[in-house]
Amino acid sequence: MSDTLAIFSSGMWTLRPEIALLTGMTPVRARMGLAREAKAVAGWGHKSTADRARRAAAAAGLPYAAVEDGFLRSIRPGTGTRSFSYVVDWTGIYYDASAPSDLERLIVEAAAEPGISGDTLALLRRARLSKYNSGRRLGQVEQLLPKDFVLVVDQTDGDASVAGALASALTFDTMLQAALDRFGSDRTVVKVHPDVTAGLKRGYLFDRARDLGLAVLDRDVDPWDLFERCEAVFTVSSLIGLEALMAGVPVHCFGAPFYSGWGLTKDTVALPRRTARPTLAGLVEAAYGRYCRYIDPYFREASTLPNAVSTLSELKARFQSGPRFVTGGFSRWRIAAVEPFLDCAAGPPMHRRTIAEAEAEAKEGRLRLAVWGYGNDPVASASVRIEDGFLRSIGLGVEGAYPASLVLDEYGLYYDPGRLSGFEALANGAVLDRVLLERAAALRARIVAGRLSKYGVGRSLALPGASGRMRILVPGQVETDASIRLGAMDVRTNTDLLKAVRRQHPDAFILYKPHPDVVAGLRRGAVPKAVLEATADEAVLEASIADCLDWADRVETMTSLTGFEALLRGKAVAVHGRPFYGGWGLTEDVAPMPDRRQRRLTLDELVAVALILYPSYVDPFNRTPCPVEVVVRRLSEPPPVETGAARLERLVRTLRARILNRIAVAFPQSD
Question: 501 in helix, strand or coil?
């Protein structure tokens, strides 16, 4: 057994997997006193909530580990999402300048290294990330800011980093006055902390800045956008000061944050022990590369700085994608399903009872109207259309399983070849570089190895031998599905498809797999028995699609996603309709394809567009936004054990969905 680490805080106890990784020790719960076997004590920084742990460590003569969030935490603050980085400091803590810390030691060591790498600084400059990344792009606010302004950074009242920087409320008044004296009131902009903007805490300067008539940024704004326009940054101890340094902006410090006193900032507070003179690259390497430690927040495993930067950059780009969403006509289940996909920097989605109400709201409030698919009314003014992605869930949507991926299309939809779609726009015009294609190749390999499909239903069954004949898999479809209605040509039914395939391949062994929704009696598309006997050698109802694809030499389909899944596995594919993956040079196109599809794609280029660039993803386990690789891994592994309450909620949702869909089948609406 490794050495044990005593934890008093119930909040920290929930982080024990992370703490074990960070420290290499086994966390044990300390209640009335220290556990006998404890070799050290951990607390959350040097804050008041950790006083009990620090006193216990001192009384027992044990080392104290100060654990805190790192400098790249998450997209939003205070939303319950886990951090991408942490720090563990056995000497002090980075924000407490009254005593040394491990970070100070690392900065001194970096200053002594000749030619220290600037890779970390370059990486962070390119990524334009902050500790929190929920800030909106400037947009129209940009026009309101004075030219060449000085940014005065407010912080939250009572934050430990203020007292730790040897500062107080008076320091903020001094800082603001210094900015006014040097730059004047017409060029001074006060930035409020995101927690103050969110109404979670109070700040120091908000009221005074308003009283003085100063420009106040009282909403969460991406600081890197501000750095491009400001002449200087004034701060007490905010991490924005270091981010501004990385952006090349002069920084004036009125407290003693960890990055001051090293010759890189203009300082009001002197710290005699900080005599080293690191380069900016050395300081950044010490802070982000050596002091911070990175954890995969989805699987709670050790990670790296490049991985954290890559994931946060992808999530930030989607989060900053545009105006706030408003939906219309969604059921309660669908609202719950889309909520994490539609949350953005402009705010969480709004929902209205009807599409007409949502459309009016969108026009009045300059919001993005979001509708599901096309439905019976195309809603010509819809700005975003939503549909299931290509790696959806374990289980059918009609059974109440929430989607792990959705597409949010600002043009049309991928299954509608009659108009430009977001998929086509990306496939024709996206930059598909080497890094992206390597990621796509690795993703494709994991999907195939994990035997994944859109729904992940079915079970392994013995499939028939073909006695040396060519093996053709014909996947059935729901005949009322929009992809058939919009994308099919001469062949429009499962019956027509089977007949066409048999005519084209009279000697082949044809295996027919009906759609799971049709098998479940929830959708239309059954093939008459006489047709099956005349065209198919065998039909399989419950076999997994992965097994069927392994069995097949070739897939023939109208517009089924199974054709795309076959391409992932290197199978020959003929399409009798116009699916999104047809017309790019990878399929045998029986039907004429849209002239818009001009680009010839490799398989990995198609995968990059279809699975990385086009859809959005949420972790099926905790419903937080994530990269596609998280969904692939979740769907490849056994599901986590459900609590009793979660199991009951899922069963109720499934039963309700089944009832509603049986009603829909019995009383279909006309197209």
Answer: helix
